[in-house]
């Protein structure tokens, strides 16, 4: 979708009302919803009233006085942005008097503004410049000889944008965007009268303030006061294309604004349904990795990982990889090879990889990164509701009265959704946070949780059952909903179980560490507070009882009737941009696309007829099984597209031992990531800017990804998979990813109505999209569950095997931070590292004092799996006995210490509960020293390939 660079700005937000109002503007009649501003009504009929402080992403403010109009029968000249329409009103937007007033107002603005339009970076995209022309300003009679702000010092501290106060017109748009859109409240207006200027914090530099660099202020600024440094460097873009962000599972729509094939900036798309014109620091600014010098753009092969890489042609690399896979299968058997699909690649690319494994390799040894994050979501929601996905849109939270956040940190992991949620909280919704750590949502500007339940890591199931106990025993059940919508026997079994005294908040307080009165209060609020929604993350799924906990959440929603309408539901916050899509596309070893079991002969026959091959009915190996089989000698070859299993999977030394035991590893990626250092074939990948396709976000929203520049290596990822399949003897002929989606729709009931044409027309589509829901399904389970009747499951708490001991007295849990993303392969290659340049260990002051640890000290973290060394950060966010770190930097080795404990149903690793000891140290761990040597060697072997020395 090619778009104009600048969207129409209607001045004030659209209003929704059943009541319509008819009025006359400039002699023309128009009918609009009640509450609409005169400015917007005029804009909708094509009359653009001049404005500076008004923009349709913010509530009207009425400060600039440029949008004055005349209303018949009223004295004075009201501001059209703050004046709502009234029935029968007669408005004039143009007259000689209005023109004089507006020109006078504009003259005052220009009197304290640099007249450097021709050399200004905003030239061609400056509202002040445009409106000066609109009002006909031709001379400025005063100002330059007296006081002015023309010599004000620029703030260049932020790596992505510049702040030039000399060009500030104090319209307040940036301040309001920070408050209304982002919810950070990092900006203010300092000084009074003539001295007024925008100020980050208490007159701090942007980088020293609470600014989170979401870009909302830059987007809102009507002048060059706040300007992207990329625009300052390269000039204004000339055209744009709509695409979808390749970071988290929110799936923000963006306009890639370009000159030729060069991306100048990424601006959030106002019509993006997931983000509605907002963004975060990653999607807005951290896209430079796509053209980073570390990009590998030529295929490479080597016999052993101790050999230098050898750059080869695409033909030779593909032939070598296919030849190795054939050799391994001939020698060790059909099941000796497999593949891992990517949650960063498109739906179409993921679909092709699983097709290649099943139809080309002839087995079902395919898995995806959801194995280590949200596989319990798939299992738990599939069992209870019948489908493996969130139930709502993100916008649904605007109808919530109570929001429960469990094991998620939206402000860091899903910041655009967090901004939407914080706005609803500021409007009065109640908040319950269930998390071992005091995340920002517990207490931050204008947001304070009504209940924070700081449970001990690993006790989620005991907590959810205790909440259910209160709802059952205090008579807070939604009896009518349960009778109509749920299985009777399963409900009674569950009800009897949770009502047992041993499941009460008092009885479980010793397990969870949370006082009973807090649990009872939170349960009552959730059950009686109106529309109640649950949002959860990896703090729910990455446990030995992850699937049980997901079923417990589903139970709670059914028991209170909080499912099947706006403002409620069960909503997993997915981590990667297309992890939902990778699951939908059949990336699990037991499921074909659409979550249909491989053993189902009727389903299998559909794919066999379409693909022209016979498929194995036996489920294949999960990722942990692949590692075990490699170490036992039966699994010898792996095709890994766009995943870094060495850094992201638990028990790193176990993973690297497994990879070292394989004879052929083919990695398809854009960088030499940690997994690629164990590879024998490297196939250059393509970034999201270099391909066409679709991503599916956490709300089941299928959005287009559009190619904005040619693939640096010559091919998009889907084309590389086609070449490999062809070399393996599997013919797949597609001219464009649209044809792959057509096949997906043909074979997958929930995608039956999906097409590129439909996405183009609607902007995005939420599955299920079929004959019953031709334009998609925003809210699931409205009249009934996918499985028919909702099914309750007994959630017996079983303590994890990972227990604290005298040797390992602390519990380590892990998570993410705002500026970095997942394994950091993308964000570490951007200026985001200025905010977070290393992983640190957060530790409570009591635990630190006991061990003689000061803030910034190096500490060793030892578990039964391994040991690493990080810098300590003493933090009141932690509770005593619990420590926390992130996993964005490979040298940190966070997963060296996580164990291979996993969820009972899905093998999702128990990242969130690792028993450790933390002590001061003076040198890196043995693993870190070995890693440093190995890494240096691998980079040297790569450099030799670049020098042609192989």
Give the SSE layout.
Blueprint: E1 2-3, E2 20-25, E3 28-33, H1 38-44, E4 70-71, E5 90-92, H2 96-110, H3 127-134, E6 161-163, H4 173-182, E7 187-190, E8 197-200, H5 216-220, E9 226-228, H6 229-234, E10 239-244, E11 253-259, E12 262-268, H7 281-285, E13 300-301, E14 310-311, H8 314-332, E15 337-340, H9 347-361, E16 366-367, H10 375-384, E17 402-406, H11 410-413, H12 415-426, E18 430-434, E19 443-444, E20 447-448, E21 451-453, H13 460-473, H14 479-485, H15 488-498, H16 505-512, H17 516-528, E22 532-536, H18 538-541, H19 546-559, E23 569-572, H20 579-584, E24 591-592, E25 596-597, H21 601-611, H22 623-632, E26 637-641, H23 645-648, H24 652-660, E27 664-669, E28 681-684, E29 693-696, E30 701-705, H25 717-727, H26 737-747, H27 756-762, E31 765-766, E32 810-815, E33 840-843, H28 845-851, E34 858-862, E35 867-874, E36 882-886, H29 894-897, E37 914-920, H30 926-946
Helix pairs in contact: 8-25, 9-25, 9-26, 10-19, 13-16, 13-17, 13-19, 16-17, 22-24
List keywords for this structure.
16% strand; 950 residues; 30 helices
Major sheet details: 7 strands, mixed
- Which term fits the overall shape? globular
* Residue fraction in strands: 15-25%
Average the pLDDT over all residues and give the rounded result.
93
Q: What's the total number of strands? A: 37
Distance between the termini: 44 Å
The tally of helices reads 30
């Amino acid at each position: 979708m090619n778009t104009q660079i600048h969207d129409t700005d209607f001045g004030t937000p659209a209003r929704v009302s059943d009541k319509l109002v008819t009025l006359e503007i400039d002699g023309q009649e128009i009918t609009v919803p009640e509450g609409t501003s005169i400015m917007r009504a005029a804009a909708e009929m094509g009359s653009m009233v001049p404005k500076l402080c008004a923009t349709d992403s913010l509530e009207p403010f009425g400060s600039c006085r440029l949008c004055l109009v005349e209303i018949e029968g009223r004295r004075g000249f009201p501001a059209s942005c703050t004046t709502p329409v009234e029935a029968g009103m007669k408005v004039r937007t143009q007259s000689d008097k209005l023109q004089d007033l507006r020109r006078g107002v504009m003259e005052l603005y220009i009197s304290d503004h640099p007249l450097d339009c021709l050399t200004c970076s905003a030239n061609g995209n400056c509202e002040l410049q445009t409106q000066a022309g609109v009002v006909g300003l031709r001379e400025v009679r005063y100002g330059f000889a007296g006081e002015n702000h023309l010599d004000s010092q620029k703030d260049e501290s932020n790596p992505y944008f510049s702040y030039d106060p000399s060009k500030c017109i104090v319209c307040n748009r940036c301040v309001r965007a920070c408050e209304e859109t982002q919810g950070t409240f990092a900006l203010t207006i300092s000084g009074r009268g003539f001295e007024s200027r925008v100020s980050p914090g208490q007159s701090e530099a942007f980088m020293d303030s609470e600014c989170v660099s979401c870009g909302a202020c830059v987007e809102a600024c009507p002048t060059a006061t706040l300007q992207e440094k990329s625009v300052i460097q390269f000039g204004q873009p000339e055209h744009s294309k709509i695409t979808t962000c390749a970071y988290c599972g929110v799936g923000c729509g963006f306009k890639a604004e370009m000159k030729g094939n060069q991306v100048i900036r990424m601006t959030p798309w106002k019509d993006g349904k997931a983000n509605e014109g907002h963004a975060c620091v990653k999607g807005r600014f951290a896209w430079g990795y796509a053209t980073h010098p570390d990009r590998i753009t030529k295929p490479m092969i080597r016999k052993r990982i101790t050999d230098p890489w050898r750059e080869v042609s695409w033909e030779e690399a593909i032939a070598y990889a296919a030849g190795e896979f054939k050799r391994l299968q001939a020698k060790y058997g059909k099941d000796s090879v497999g593949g891992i699909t990517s949650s960063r690649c498109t739906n179409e690319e993921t679909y092709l990889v699983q097709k290649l494994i099943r139809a080309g390799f002839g087995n079902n040894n395919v898995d995806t990164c959801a194995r280590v994050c949200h596989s319990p979501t798939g299992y738990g929601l599939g069992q209870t509701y019948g489908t493996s996905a969130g139930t709502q849109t993100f916008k649904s939270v605007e109808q919530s009265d109570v929001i429960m956040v469990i094991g998620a940190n939206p402000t860091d992991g899903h910041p655009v959704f967090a901004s939407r949620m914080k706005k609803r909280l500021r409007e009065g919704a109640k908040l319950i946070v269930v998390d071992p750590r005091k995340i920002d949502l517990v207490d931050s500007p204008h947001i304070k949780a009504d209940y924070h339940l700081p449970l001990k890591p690993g006790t989620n199931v005991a907590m959810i059952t205790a909440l259910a106990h209160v709802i059952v025993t205090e008579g807070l059940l939604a009896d009518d909903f349960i009778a109509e919508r749920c299985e009777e026997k399963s409900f009674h079994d569950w009800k009897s179980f949770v009502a047992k005294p041993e499941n009460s908040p008092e009885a479980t307080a010793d397990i969870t560490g949370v006082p009973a009165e807090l649990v009872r209060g939170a349960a009552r609020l959730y059950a009686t507070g109106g529309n109640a929604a649950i949002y959860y993350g990896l703090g729910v799924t990455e446990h030995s009882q992850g699937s049980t906990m997901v079923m417990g959440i589903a139970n709670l929603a059914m028991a209170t009737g909080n499912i099947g309408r706006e403002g409620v539901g069960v909503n997993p916050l997915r981590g990667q941009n297309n992890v939902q899509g990778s699951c939908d596309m059949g990336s699990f070893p037991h499921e074909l696309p659409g979550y249909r079991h491989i053993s189902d002969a009727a389903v299998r026959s559909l794919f066999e007829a379409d693909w022209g091959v016979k498929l194995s009915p036996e489920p294949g190996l999960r990722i942990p099984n692949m590692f075990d089989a490699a170490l036992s000698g039966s699994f010898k070859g792996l095709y890994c597209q766009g995943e870094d299993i060495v850094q992201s999977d638990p028990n790193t030394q176990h993973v690297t031992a497994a990879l070292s035991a394989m004879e052929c590893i083919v990695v398809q990626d854009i960088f030499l990531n940690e997994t690629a250092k164990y590879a024998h074939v490297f196939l250059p990948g393509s970034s999201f800017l270099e391909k066409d396709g679709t991503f599916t976000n956490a709300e089941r929203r299928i959005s287009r990804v559009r190619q904005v520049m040619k693939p640096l290596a010559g091919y998009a990822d889907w084309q590389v998979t086609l070449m490999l399949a062809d070399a393996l003897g599997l013919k797949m002929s597609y001219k464009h990813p649209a044809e792959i989606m057509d096949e997906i729709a043909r074979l997958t009931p929930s995608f039956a109505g999906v097409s590129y044409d439909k996405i183009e027309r609607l902007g995005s589509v939420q599955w299920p999209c079929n004959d019953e829901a031709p334009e998609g399904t925003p809210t699931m389970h409205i009249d009934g569950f996918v499985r028919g009747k909702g099914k309750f499951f007994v959630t017996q708490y079983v303590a994890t095997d990972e227990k604290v001991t005298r040797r390992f007295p602390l519990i380590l849990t892990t998570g993410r931070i705002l500026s970095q993303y997942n394994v950091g392969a993308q964000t570490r290659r951007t200026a985001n590292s200025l905010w977070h340049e290393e992983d640190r260990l957060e530790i409570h002051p009591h635990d630190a004092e006991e061990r003689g640890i000061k803030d910034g000290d190096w500490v060793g973290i030892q578990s039964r799996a391994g040991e690493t060394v990080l810098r300590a950060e003493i933090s009141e966010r932690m509770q005593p006995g619990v420590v926390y770190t992130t996993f964005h930097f490979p040298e940190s080795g966070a997963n060296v210490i996580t164990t291979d404990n996993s969820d009972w149903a899905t093998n999702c690793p128990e990242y969130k509960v690792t028993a450790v000891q933390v002590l001061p140290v003076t040198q890196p761990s043995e693993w870190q020293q070995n890693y440093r040597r190995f890494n240096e060697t691998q980079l040297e072997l790569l450099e030799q390939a670049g020098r042609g020395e192989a």
